[in-house]
Structures are given as C-alpha cells and as structure tokens.
C-alpha cells in the first residue's frame, strides 16, 4: 500500500497521499474498478466494508496479484486476445491493470498501444462488450452539451482526448472505433505521467465513415453514412469545444488522429483560445526534435548548420518540420521564413515546389521550381541538397535505399537518419541496414522498437553494439499534458513545447555514452514525465498562462509538488463515509457517466 504519511503537499486536491474516502460496501465495492482491491483487501477493510464472505480468506499483496494476472495474460493465444484480456482487467481493477502494465511495460506497450490497439480498433464492432467513453453524434449536435454533462461537474475532468476516427494509427478511417484510440492515449497519460485515470474522458465524434468495409458491415456500431464535411463538420467541432469548455473549464483537450485536412487546421483554430494539443502534429514533432538535438550534440554538429530532408509531407512530416523550423529560428534569432529554407519536404509527387499543389501548412516549405531540373525522386533531392539529416514519415517501406543512404553519407560523416513510419512493416529502412551502409556512423532513431545492432565499427575493428532509440511520443505528450493539467494552463504555447523538448533532450542517454540510444527508454518514462512537466510548468508561469496558485519556484520543490499529484498504481487505505454525504469520487462515480441527469 502507498504511504499515508502526510507530505508538504498532501493538502492538494490531486494529492496521492493518505486514505481514499469510499461510500461503497459489499458487492458494489468489488464492482468498482477504482476502489476494488480483490484478494488484496486487508482484514480490517474486509470487516468494515462487509467483504468477509465475498472473498477467499488468504490476503494477498499487489505483487501476488500482478504475478497471477501475468500468468493469465501469457495464456492468451495472440496479441489481440491479450489486448482484450487487459481491457477486461481494467474494467475490474484499475490499480492492478496499471501495475501489471508498469511491471512489464516494454513487453506490453505494443499490445496496449500500437500496433495491437490498431487491430482492436479495426475489430471494434465485433469485439464490443460495453461502451467506454462519450459518443457524440453529428446528426444530433443539440445533444452534445447534454451528453458531455453526463461525465461530471466542472471539477471532475482534467484531460479530454477526442478523435473523429478518420486517420487511426496508419490504418485509416475507423469511424466510431476511434473511441479506442482516445481511451488508449488516456491510458498512456496515466501510465506514463500519472494523470488520474478516473479524471480523464475519452470522446469520439461520430461524423460517419468513408470506410466502405465498415459501411457494408451489419455489425458496425457507428453512423452508417459517408463522412460529413464542410460547414456542418466545423460547426459540430465548435459545438463540442464550446460545450467541453463550458462544462469542464479547466480541462486540457487532446486532439487525436483527425484527418490530414483537419488536424492542423483545427489545432491552429483553437490553440489561441484554449489549452489544447494534437499529438500527431505536435507530439511527433517534439519527440523527433528532442532526438535530433541529442544526435547533433552527440556528433558535434549544429542545428544552425543543418540541412534537413523530410520524406513524407503529411501531418507528422509537417509537424516535425514546424518544430525544427521553430528551433532554428529561436537559436539563430531569425524569421520562420528564413529558418524554413533549411528544410526540404517531399511528398508522393516529389519535392514540394512552387508548382506543387500544397496545403496551407505545407506552403511555407515550397522551393522555387525554376531551380530544380529533377525533383521527383528522393535520391535526386538528396544528391542536390546534401542533407545531414533525413527523416521519414512516408509509410513507404524500404524508401531509404542503400544508394540513397550512401549518397547522403558522402557529404555527411555522421548522417542522422530517422525512419519513423509506423508500424514496423512501414519503416523506410531497418536500423541494421542504415548502420551497415554507413560503417556504424549513422545516428538512428525509429518510430517502433528495434533490437540493438552489432557490427565491426570499433576503432580497432572490434564489434560494437549500438542501441536504437525509439521516437515514442509517450516520452513527451503525457508530460506535456501533466504540466498543463497541474498548472491549469490557459493555453499551450510554443515556448512551453520548446521547454518540453529541452526537458527530454537533456535526459538523452547518448549524451553520456555514444552507443546508447538518443532518447530515454520508455521504461524510464515516469521520471522523464516529471522533468517534462517541470519544464512546461516553468514556461507556463513565465508566459503568464498558468492559473494554478501556489506553484513552487524552487526546482526541487516543484518536482516534489508534481510527484505528489501523480497517480500511482498502488492500493491506498479506504476510509468509510456515509453515502448521503459522499462526493462523486467517494461513490466511485468519477470517470463514469451519470445516468438519469
């Protein structure tokens, strides 16, 4: 059990120290995933909460339960079955669910998130057992506020993750199944940054689907109609945002897996008005920039001297370009326009030039077409640009060929190459190939986990093992969200994002060991999130957008303040309170819809 010993910050509303008030007893308590401890209830609580006849006699520890749950998990035949098992466990006992994940994080991460969560989303209507989250229907915009209000009062929700399901995890339009990506992202915020799981709200905006397989499936649970676009769509998004702000004025809104044509447009529309974030645009850019800064530092290169080619000009590619551009502009004290001259974006048709059909987001990166005789292939662009940095967000497997990499290496002694497309089968190159083609000189980060690579690259020709960094957004976006939630930031500013990047980059293992990965391991993500949140909060205070009172100014105190408010998967003592005087939290109603309103 967690300590009940008071700390300097035990008085805070989100404090995780001390007992939890609980008004539930008997079977109702066992059926509450928030309070349920199962076989780990101590005898004193079994008697006080009327559980003695409902549980076997042996009092177990949380570690005992994790061991049992892991054996059950291992007995499942495939990753999708394991994913379904974990979902069921979460419905029964949240503490055990998160403790199991934290104990086996590297093994289970790909099951609870990409790529297995993508399989679960594709099969959502077939695997459906019970609804989790808020379903808002574009055909009933007048019900949005009423439906959101079911999820609590102004102080009940800290973090909202919302999707319209149009571009999910590299598998495209999944319609109403997108509710699972909202839930999965919120699981990661709790797992990686201690966002209280019962204070989060997953939302799907059902605007129809253009996925013909779903439209033809009589089991599909969403609107069986093509996607609504244009003014009706925009009005629906506005209705949602306004209702969410009215009902949960201090909640942070995370936009997830919106279509390319909407993701950046909506982010730019609402960023000046509310504290919001888009992981596909900003999170990918932030974690990539953090890895980039670490690689530059490790190889004694400068961002100001860099020439960057990005292969893939969608939301992720442009998001990375924007973060890198902002960093160059800040470092050199130059305009965004001038900084963007160091970045070349390539899409399916080739390099973006003045002759290309580009979006508003891509426009700032177009090059003068008259200066290019051949801009149609990645090889021709690499040969003419001579980049020292090559980033892939194209989902074109094998796009970074030996010829292209060797052409780059001719002019870049320590080429920085990041094949980031997900899942693994869509990677632009394998780390082993990149290192072999460059005699171990490439600095590599990927979008999915890869095993370390060994080769004869030592100074004496001996074998060297190089660990490959994974550009996992989970080392960035949960900490950013934590910082915004705890500071109650009115906005998430560019300087707060830069601060987050600096927080991650400062923890790069490669800064101390040349063979270590460029980014912290996902297993270290909770202490990383503390640092990211600290940097974000300090930037928010400096920018004047933090509204929480009493934020410590001392670094050490601020870290303690943050950790005290991070939810941990530990059993806390329960304090019995009367139902008639109980709060929603004590009734186990946080994170659940309130029927009958």
UniProtKB/TrEMBL annotation:
Residues 281-541 form the Malic enzyme NAD-binding domain. It comes from the Eukaryota. Its cofactor is Mg(2+); Mn(2+). The keyword NADP does not apply. Divalent metal cations. Prefers magnesium or manganese. GO terms for molecular function: malate dehydrogenase (decarboxylating) (NAD+) activity; metal ion binding; NAD binding. The keyword Phosphoprotein does not apply. One of its GO terms (cellular component) is cytosol. The active site is at residues 113, 185. This is Malic enzyme. It comes from Hypocrea jecorina (strain QM6a) (Trichoderma reesei). The lineage of its organism: Eukaryota, Fungi, Dikarya, Ascomycota, Pezizomycotina.
């Amino acid at each position: 059990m967690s300590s009940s010993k008071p700390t300097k910050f035990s008085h805070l509303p989100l404090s995780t120290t001390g007992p939890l008030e609980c008004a539930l007893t008997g079977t109702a308590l066992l059926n509450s995933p928030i309070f349920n401890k199962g076989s780990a209830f101590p005898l004193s609580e079994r008697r006080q909460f009327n559980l003695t006849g409902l549980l076997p006699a042996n009092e177990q520890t949380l570690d005992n339960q994790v061991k049992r749950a892991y054996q059950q998990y291992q007995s499942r035949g495939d990753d999708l079955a394991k994913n379904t098992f974990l979902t069921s466990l979460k419905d029964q006992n949240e503490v055990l669910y998160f403790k199991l994940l934290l104990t086996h994080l590297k093994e289970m991460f790909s099951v609870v998130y990409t790529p297995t969560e993508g399989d679960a989303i594709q099969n959502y209507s077939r695997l459906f057992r019970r609804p989790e989250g808020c379903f808002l229907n574009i055909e009933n915009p007048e019900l949005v506020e009423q439906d959101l209000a079911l999820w609590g009062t102004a102080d009940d929700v800290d973090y909202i993750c919302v999707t319209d399901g149009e571009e999910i995890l590299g598998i495209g339009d999944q319609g109403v199944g997108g509710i699972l990506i909202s839930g999965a992202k919120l699981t990661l915020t709790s797992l990686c940054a201690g966002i209280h799981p019962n204070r989060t709200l997953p939302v799907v905006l059902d605007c129809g689907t253009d996925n013909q397989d779903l439209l033809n499936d009589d089991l599909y649970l969403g609107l069986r109609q093509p996607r609504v676009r244009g003014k009706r769509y925009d009005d629906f998004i506005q209705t949602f945002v306004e209702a969410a702000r009215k009902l949960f004025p201090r909640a942070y809104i995370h936009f997830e897996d919106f279509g390319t044509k909407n993701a950046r447009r909506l982010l730019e529309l609402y960023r000046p008005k509310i504290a919001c974030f888009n992981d596909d645009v900003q999170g990918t850019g932030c974690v990539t920039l953090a890895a980039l800064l670490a690689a530059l530092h490790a190889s004694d290169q400068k961002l100001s001297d860099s020439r960057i080619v990005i292969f893939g000009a969608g939301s992720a590619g442009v998001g990375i370009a924007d973060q890198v551009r902002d960093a160059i502009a800040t470092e050199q004290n130059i305009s965004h326009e001038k900084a963007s001259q160091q970045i070349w974006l390539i899409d399916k048709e080739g390099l973006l030039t003045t002759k290309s059909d580009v979006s508003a987001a891509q426009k700032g990166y177009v090059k003068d077409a008259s200066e290019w005789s051949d801009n149609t292939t990645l090889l021709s662009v690499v040969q003419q640009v001579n980049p020292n940095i090559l980033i892939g967000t194209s989902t074109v497997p094998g796009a970074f060929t030996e010829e292209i990499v060797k052409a780059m290496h001719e002019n870049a002694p320590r080429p920085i190459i990041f094949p980031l497309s997900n899942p693994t089968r869509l990677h632009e190159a394998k780390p082993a190939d990149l290192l072999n083609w460059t005699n171990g000189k490439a600095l590599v980060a990927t979008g999915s986990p890869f095993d370390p690579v060994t080769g004869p690259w030592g100074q004496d020709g001996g074998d060297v093992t190089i660990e490959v960094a994974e550009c996992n957004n989970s080392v960035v976006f949960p900490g950013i969200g934590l910082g915004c939630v705890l500071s109650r930031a009115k906005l998430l500013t560019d300087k707060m994002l830069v601060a987050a990047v600096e927080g991650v980059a400062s923890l790069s293992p490669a800064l101390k060991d040349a063979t270590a990965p460029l980014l912290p391991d996902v297993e270290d993500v909770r202490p990383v999130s503390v640092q990211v949140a600290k940097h974000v909060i300090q930037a928010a205070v400096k920018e004047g957008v933090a509204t929480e009172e009493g934020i410590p100014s001392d670094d050490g105190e601020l870290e303690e303040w943050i950790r005290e408010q991070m939810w941990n998967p530990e059993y806390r003592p329960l304090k019995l309170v009367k139902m008639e005087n109980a709060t929603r939290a004590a009734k186990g109603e946080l994170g659940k819809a309130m029927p009958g309103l």
